[in-house]
Design a protein that fits this description.
By secondary structure, the chain is of the alpha+beta class. The strands form four sheets. An eight-stranded antiparallel β-sheet has the order 14-13-10-6-5-18-19-20. It has a five-stranded parallel β-sheet with strand order 2-1-3-4-8, sandwiched between helices. Strands 7-9-15-16-17 form a five-stranded antiparallel β-sheet, with helices on one face. The two termini are about 30 Å apart.
Length: about 375
């Protein structure tokens, strides 16, 4: 018998996240062969009157392909996948796997090649701007291990996070969106961090279950050349198969001029991918009340209660700051007291301290008010 929580999740993804309508095509792309959720999504898509299409992928197979990939081949793969994506009205990306480091030994130039072909031509140019899309993880024993939890406890946590009332969160985010849209200068301080930048005239976008599951962030982007100061990230950040720790970035007029981490050489190779990789494409504030600690999975970690992420690389079209890159790397800083605390100021007014909103219009986004 199917876990009823899976059916609830599938129903929410089809009817709330991508709002599939009669006659619309939805691509369900599954890494990791999580058949129960895929079947539930197919069922719900048919119930909504839509046409489901399924693509099954595997990270081990991707590794084998990427190790010796060439540019002509990757361009043809991108052309093939783009042909399919152009026919879709909606996209559900289901990510699962047993090893987050599966791609760790793929050379960085091969990962960059994949990013500028498939990543750009399929996802950035078609899927993101032209479909209703949502991306999510699915629980596994390896995810439970990363979170330091038993498999059963992690599954319960997962469904609490993913099946919460996102409609309630959506309404509570309106005041933060309004405030960000009126803000010019942002200052963020904390252990090893003193950062200033402008978000003037760049739209703030709320994320409450429509593009990611789990969800819970409001994002915008800094004015490209406005970022100055230093940020020290206090969460581990997997990227291209390697887990970076103690990342510290120093900015001058928007550009990363110094970058260090537990593997500084590898870090700087990523930032040398292209010109835009050393500029910031996103600034976002995380508010999911159920996600309290990092688990080395960015779809969870970027939503952590009391966190923000400051993202090198490509900006989003709906929060456009004219930064272009084949990378988009969400790196997280948590400002709750147990992670060192910190302050966030909008136009010199303290709006969040130690991870909690402190002005009246934003109190509804504190965790006790979102559960």
């Amino acid at each position: 018998m199917r876990d009823p929580r899976i059916q609830i999740l599938a129903r929410n993804l089809i009817n709330y996240s991508v709002r599939l309508q009669k006659g619309e095509n939805v691509l369900i792309e599954n890494f990791g062969l999580q058949k129960e959720l895929v079947k539930a999504l197919v069922d719900e898509a048919y119930k909504a009157g839509g046409n489901p299409f399924v693509s099954l992928k595997d990270h081990e197979v991707d590794r084998a392909l990427l190790l010796n990939a060439n540019e002509d081949q990757m361009n043809l793969i991108a052309e093939f996948e783009a042909t399919v994506m152009k026919k879709m009205d909606a996209y559900i990306g289901l990510r699962a796997g047993d090893n987050i480091s599966e791609l760790s030994d793929v050379p960085s130039e091969k990962m960059a090649l994949h990013g500028k072909t498939v990543g750009t031509k399929v996802h950035r140019e078609i899927r993101v701007p032209k479909t209703k899309w949502v991306v999510l993880r699915y629980p596994s024993a390896s995810m439970a291990q990363l979170a330091g939890m038993s498999t059963e406890a992690f599954e319960n946590f997962y469904f609490d996070v993913c099946n919460l009332d996102y409609g309630k969160m959506d309404k509570a985010m309106d005041t933060l969106v309004e405030l960000m849209n009126k803000t010019d200068k942002v200052r963020i301080t904390g252990e090893g961090t003193d950062l200033t930048f402008s978000i003037k005239d760049i739209p703030a976008i709320k994320c409450a279950g429509e593009m990611n599951i789990p969800d819970g962030e409001v994002y915008t982007a800094p004015v490209k050349n406005s970022v100055n100061g230093t940020i020290t990230y206090n969460t581990p950040s997997p990227y291209q198969g390697f887990t970076f720790e103690n990342i510290k970035l120093t900015f001058k007029d928007g550009k990363v001029v110094e970058a260090t981490a537990n593997d500084t050489e590898r870090l700087n190779k990523i930032f040398d991918t292209d010109e835009g990789a050393r500029y910031i494409g996103e600034f976002a504030i995380g508010v999911n009340p159920y996600i309290q600690h990092p688990m080395k999975d960015i779809l969870f970690d970027e939503k952590i209660d009391g966190s923000f992420h400051f993202t090198p690389g490509q900006c989003y079209d709906d929060a456009f700051n004219d930064n272009h890159s084949s990378i988009h790397w969400d790196i997280v800083n948590i400002q709750r007291p147990e992670y060192g605390g910190g302050e966030m100021y909008f136009d010199d007014v303290l709006i969040r301290k130690d991870g909690r909103f402190v002005i009246d219009e934003l109190l509804g986004l504190n965790p006790e008010n979102l559960k």
